[in-house]
Design a protein that fits this description.
Elements lengths: L2 H16 L9 E8 L4 E10 L2 E13 L2 E7 L5 H7 L7 E3 L4 H4 L8
Parallel strand pairs: 4-5
Antiparallel strand pairs: 1-2, 2-3, 3-4
Amino acid sequence: MDKLQQYRQIIRQVLTEQAHPYSHSNDVETEIICDTEHDHYQLAYVGWEDQQRIFNLILHFDIKNGKIWIQHNGTEIAIAQVLNEKGIPASDIVLGFHSPFKRQFSGYAVT
């Protein structure tokens, strides 16, 4: 399996592992969104809780130039560490939610 296919598979696995039912309402769906053509991947809660619209983005990954960009992490876990433990080297993980200046201190890829 080539590197890109492996990264896509690992991202899908992480999204699936983090996808939990929304506990406050049966009218809110847990959505895993995988755009393999453009390499955008998300986990979100979408729906209604009573009269309130729910749209919560939990995780967002992109694959750009052979690296996984973590664009958003709304979990309490160190998602970059999870990716690393699943075989993705730190040099291929970019903390996109940090400024370019701050990334140099993260121990992960700068870009």
